[in-house]
Protein backbone atom coordinates (compact mmCIF):
# COMPACT_ATOMS: atom_id res chain seq x y z
CA UNK A 1 0.00 0.00 0.00
CA UNK A 2 1.61 3.20 -1.16
CA UNK A 3 0.09 6.03 0.80
CA UNK A 4 0.36 9.48 -0.67
CA UNK A 5 -3.08 11.05 -0.54
CA UNK A 6 -3.56 11.05 3.19
CA UNK A 7 -0.44 12.44 4.77
CA UNK A 8 -0.87 12.11 8.48
CA UNK A 9 2.84 12.60 9.20
CA UNK A 10 4.40 15.97 9.87
CA UNK B 1 0.43 7.19 15.70
CA UNK B 2 3.10 5.19 17.47
CA UNK B 3 5.59 6.05 20.17
CA UNK B 4 8.52 6.56 17.75
CA UNK B 5 6.51 9.01 15.69
CA UNK B 6 5.29 10.90 18.78
CA UNK B 7 8.75 11.15 20.36
CA UNK B 8 10.10 12.18 16.94
CA UNK B 9 7.57 15.01 16.68
CA UNK B 10 8.30 16.12 20.25
CA UNK B 11 12.04 16.02 19.57
CA UNK B 12 11.47 18.21 16.52
CA UNK B 13 9.43 20.63 18.60
CA UNK B 14 12.05 20.59 21.36
CA UNK B 15 14.77 21.47 18.82
CA UNK B 16 12.83 24.48 17.56
CA UNK B 17 12.10 25.65 21.12
CA UNK B 18 15.72 25.24 22.23
CA UNK B 19 16.84 27.45 19.35
CA UNK B 20 14.16 30.08 19.96
CA UNK B 21 14.96 30.21 23.69
CA UNK B 22 18.71 30.40 23.06
CA UNK B 23 18.20 33.38 20.74
CA UNK B 24 15.68 35.03 23.04
CA UNK B 25 17.57 34.57 26.34
CA UNK B 26 21.00 35.51 25.01
CA UNK B 27 19.56 38.23 22.74
CA UNK B 28 21.87 36.82 20.09
CA UNK B 29 21.80 34.44 17.17
CA UNK B 30 25.58 34.09 16.89
CA UNK B 31 26.60 30.70 15.52
CA UNK B 32 23.18 29.98 14.03
CA UNK B 33 22.79 29.73 10.27
CA UNK B 34 20.01 32.03 9.09
CA UNK B 35 20.10 30.25 5.76
CA UNK B 36 19.21 26.90 7.34
CA UNK B 37 16.40 28.64 9.23
CA UNK B 38 15.05 30.17 6.01
CA UNK B 39 15.17 26.75 4.35
CA UNK B 40 13.28 25.14 7.27
CA UNK B 41 10.60 27.84 7.02
CA UNK B 42 10.34 27.16 3.30
CA UNK B 43 10.03 23.44 4.09
CA UNK B 44 7.11 24.03 6.46
CA UNK B 45 5.34 26.50 4.16
CA UNK B 46 5.49 24.21 1.11
CA UNK B 47 4.60 21.06 3.08
CA UNK B 48 1.72 22.34 5.17
CA UNK B 49 -0.34 23.95 2.39
CA UNK B 50 -2.66 20.99 2.94
CA UNK B 51 -3.74 22.62 6.21
CA UNK B 52 -6.37 24.33 4.06
CA UNK B 53 -7.37 21.35 1.93
CA UNK B 54 -7.06 18.22 4.03
CA UNK B 55 -8.05 17.87 7.69
CA UNK B 56 -6.39 14.87 9.37
CA UNK B 57 -6.62 15.46 13.12
CA UNK B 58 -6.49 18.23 15.70
CA UNK B 59 -3.01 17.04 16.69
CA UNK B 60 -1.85 17.20 13.07
CA UNK B 61 -3.23 20.69 12.42
CA UNK B 62 -2.04 22.13 15.74
CA UNK B 63 1.50 20.79 15.30
CA UNK B 64 1.66 22.12 11.74
CA UNK B 65 0.64 25.57 12.91
CA UNK B 66 3.16 25.47 15.80
CA UNK B 67 5.99 24.44 13.46
CA UNK B 68 5.06 27.17 10.98
CA UNK B 69 4.77 29.94 13.56
CA UNK B 70 7.89 29.01 15.54
CA UNK B 71 10.07 28.60 12.47
CA UNK B 72 8.90 31.91 10.99
CA UNK B 73 9.46 33.45 14.44
CA UNK B 74 13.06 32.21 14.42
CA UNK B 75 13.64 33.77 11.00
CA UNK B 76 12.08 37.02 12.25
CA UNK B 77 14.36 37.11 15.32
CA UNK B 78 17.43 36.42 13.20
CA UNK B 79 16.80 38.79 10.32
CA UNK B 80 14.97 41.61 12.12
CA UNK B 81 15.01 41.77 15.92
CA UNK B 82 18.54 40.49 16.54
CA UNK B 83 19.96 41.08 13.07
CA UNK B 84 23.02 42.86 14.53
CA UNK B 85 24.15 39.61 16.17
CA UNK B 86 23.70 37.47 13.06
CA UNK B 87 27.02 36.02 12.00
CA UNK B 88 26.53 36.44 8.24
CA UNK B 89 30.28 36.37 7.48
CA UNK B 90 30.36 32.71 8.43
CA UNK B 91 26.97 31.84 6.93
CA UNK B 92 28.17 31.66 3.34
CA UNK B 93 26.58 28.47 2.03
CA UNK B 94 24.95 29.13 -1.36
CA UNK B 95 21.38 27.96 -0.85
CA UNK B 96 20.57 28.13 -4.57
CA UNK B 97 22.83 25.08 -4.89
CA UNK B 98 20.27 23.22 -2.76
CA UNK B 99 16.99 24.84 -3.79
CA UNK B 100 17.49 24.57 -7.57
CA UNK B 101 18.46 20.87 -7.78
CA UNK B 102 15.86 19.95 -5.17
CA UNK B 103 13.22 21.87 -7.15
CA UNK B 104 14.20 20.04 -10.32
CA UNK B 105 14.17 16.65 -8.61
CA UNK B 106 10.74 17.23 -7.10
CA UNK B 107 9.36 17.77 -10.63
CA UNK B 108 11.02 14.59 -11.87
CA UNK B 109 10.51 12.17 -8.96
CA UNK B 110 7.15 12.49 -7.22
CA UNK B 111 4.03 10.44 -6.50
CA UNK B 112 1.68 12.61 -8.51
CA UNK B 113 2.23 15.49 -10.92
CA UNK B 114 -0.03 18.02 -9.18
CA UNK B 115 0.97 21.37 -7.62
CA UNK B 116 0.38 20.36 -3.98
CA UNK B 117 2.08 17.00 -4.41
CA UNK B 118 5.13 18.56 -6.13
CA UNK B 119 5.40 21.16 -3.35
CA UNK B 120 5.13 18.41 -0.72
CA UNK B 121 7.88 16.44 -2.50
CA UNK B 122 9.99 19.61 -2.74
CA UNK B 123 9.63 20.11 1.02
CA UNK B 124 10.65 16.53 1.79
CA UNK B 125 13.75 16.75 -0.41
CA UNK B 126 14.62 20.22 0.84
CA UNK B 127 14.29 19.23 4.49
CA UNK B 128 16.78 16.43 3.98
CA UNK B 129 19.54 18.91 3.08
CA UNK B 130 18.35 22.08 4.84
CA UNK B 131 20.80 21.63 7.72
CA UNK B 132 23.84 21.81 5.40
CA UNK B 133 24.32 25.61 5.74
CA UNK B 134 24.37 25.16 9.55
CA UNK B 135 26.87 22.28 9.40
CA UNK B 136 28.94 24.25 6.89
CA UNK B 137 28.97 27.21 9.26
CA UNK B 138 30.19 25.03 12.14
CA UNK B 139 32.90 23.53 9.95
CA UNK B 140 34.02 27.07 9.02
CA UNK B 141 34.21 28.39 12.57
CA UNK B 142 35.39 25.01 13.91
CA UNK B 143 33.10 25.09 16.94
CA UNK B 144 29.51 25.31 18.14
CA UNK B 145 28.06 26.54 21.39
CA UNK B 146 26.79 23.71 23.59
CA UNK B 147 23.19 24.93 23.34
CA UNK B 148 23.47 24.92 19.54
CA UNK B 149 24.72 21.35 19.65
CA UNK B 150 21.73 20.33 21.81
CA UNK B 151 19.51 21.92 19.16
CA UNK B 152 21.22 19.94 16.41
CA UNK B 153 21.00 16.71 18.37
CA UNK B 154 17.25 17.09 18.95
CA UNK B 155 16.73 18.04 15.30
CA UNK B 156 18.76 15.10 14.00
CA UNK B 157 17.09 12.64 16.38
CA UNK B 158 13.67 13.57 15.06
CA UNK B 159 14.23 12.13 11.58
CA UNK B 160 16.11 9.12 12.95
CA UNK B 161 13.03 8.37 15.11
CA UNK B 162 10.83 8.78 12.04
CA UNK B 163 12.85 6.06 10.31
CA UNK B 164 12.07 3.68 13.17
CA UNK B 165 8.42 4.79 12.87
CA UNK B 166 8.45 3.94 9.15
CA UNK B 167 9.88 0.48 9.80
CA UNK B 168 7.20 -0.05 12.46
CA UNK B 169 4.43 1.20 10.18
CA UNK B 170 5.60 -1.00 7.34
CA UNK B 171 5.32 -4.11 9.51
CA UNK B 172 2.12 -3.16 11.33
CA UNK B 173 0.11 -1.34 8.60
CA UNK B 174 1.94 -2.13 5.37
CA UNK B 175 2.35 1.64 5.02
CA UNK B 176 5.37 3.06 3.27
CA UNK B 177 6.23 6.19 1.37
CA UNK B 178 9.47 5.69 -0.53
CA UNK B 179 10.11 9.40 -1.13
CA UNK B 180 9.88 10.19 2.58
CA UNK B 181 11.94 7.13 3.55
CA UNK B 182 14.83 7.77 1.15
CA UNK B 183 14.94 11.49 1.96
CA UNK B 184 14.67 10.74 5.69
CA UNK B 185 17.62 8.37 5.50
CA UNK B 186 19.72 10.94 3.61
CA UNK B 187 18.76 13.54 6.22
CA UNK B 188 19.78 11.30 9.11
CA UNK B 189 23.06 10.27 7.47
CA UNK B 190 24.06 13.95 7.22
CA UNK B 191 23.92 14.14 11.03
CA UNK B 192 26.02 11.04 11.71
CA UNK B 193 29.33 12.89 11.95
CA UNK B 194 27.72 15.42 14.27
CA UNK B 195 26.11 12.67 16.41
CA UNK B 196 29.54 11.12 16.88
CA UNK B 197 31.04 14.43 18.06
CA UNK B 198 28.02 15.13 20.27
CA UNK B 199 28.26 11.80 22.06
CA UNK B 200 32.04 11.78 22.41
CA UNK B 201 32.42 15.45 23.40
CA UNK B 202 29.28 17.36 24.39
CA UNK B 203 27.83 14.60 26.56
CA UNK B 204 31.15 14.45 28.42
CA UNK B 205 30.86 18.11 29.27
CA UNK B 206 33.18 19.47 26.62
CA UNK B 207 32.39 22.07 24.01
CA UNK B 208 31.95 20.92 20.44
CA UNK B 209 35.20 21.82 18.72
CA UNK B 210 36.34 20.32 15.46
CA UNK B 211 39.88 18.97 15.22
CA UNK B 212 42.10 21.62 13.62
From TrEMBL, chain B:
<dbReference type="InterPro" id="IPR000133">
    <property type="entry name" value="ER_ret_rcpt"/>
</dbReference>
<feature type="transmembrane region" description="Helical">
    <location>
        <begin position="65"/>
        <end position="82"/>
    </location>
</feature>
<dbReference type="GO" id="GO:0006621">
    <property type="term" value="P:protein retention in ER lumen"/>
</dbReference>
<dbReference type="GO" id="GO:0015031">
    <property type="term" value="P:protein transport"/>
</dbReference>
<keyword id="KW-0812">Transmembrane</keyword>
<dbReference type="GO" id="GO:0046923">
    <property type="term" value="F:ER retention sequence binding"/>
</dbReference>
<keyword id="KW-0256">Endoplasmic reticulum</keyword>
<keyword id="KW-0675">Receptor</keyword>
<comment type="similarity">
    <text>Belongs to the ERD2 family.</text>
</comment>
<dbReference type="GO" id="GO:0016192">
    <property type="term" value="P:vesicle-mediated transport"/>
</dbReference>
<dbReference type="GO" id="GO:0005789">
    <property type="term" value="C:endoplasmic reticulum membrane"/>
</dbReference>
<keyword id="KW-0968">Cytoplasmic vesicle</keyword>
<dbReference type="Pfam" id="PF00810">
    <property type="entry name" value="ER_lumen_recept"/>
</dbReference>
<keyword id="KW-1133">Transmembrane helix</keyword>
<dbReference type="GO" id="GO:0030663">
    <property type="term" value="C:COPI-coated vesicle membrane"/>
</dbReference>
<feature type="transmembrane region" description="Helical">
    <location>
        <begin position="174"/>
        <end position="199"/>
    </location>
</feature>
<keyword id="KW-0653">Protein transport</keyword>
<keyword id="KW-0472">Membrane</keyword>
<keyword id="KW-0813">Transport</keyword>
<protein>
    <recommendedName>
        <fullName>ER lumen protein-retaining receptor</fullName>
    </recommendedName>
</protein>
<feature type="transmembrane region" description="Helical">
    <location>
        <begin position="94"/>
        <end position="113"/>
    </location>
</feature>
<keyword id="KW-0931">ER-Golgi transport</keyword>
<feature type="transmembrane region" description="Helical">
    <location>
        <begin position="119"/>
        <end position="138"/>
    </location>
</feature>
Amino acid sequence: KLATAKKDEL
Amino acid sequence: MNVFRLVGDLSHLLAIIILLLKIWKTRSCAGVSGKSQILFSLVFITRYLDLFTNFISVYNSVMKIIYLVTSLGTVYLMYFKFKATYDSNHDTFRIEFLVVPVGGLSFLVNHDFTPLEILWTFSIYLESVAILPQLFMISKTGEAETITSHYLFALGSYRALYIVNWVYRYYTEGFFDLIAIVAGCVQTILYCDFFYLYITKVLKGKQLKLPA
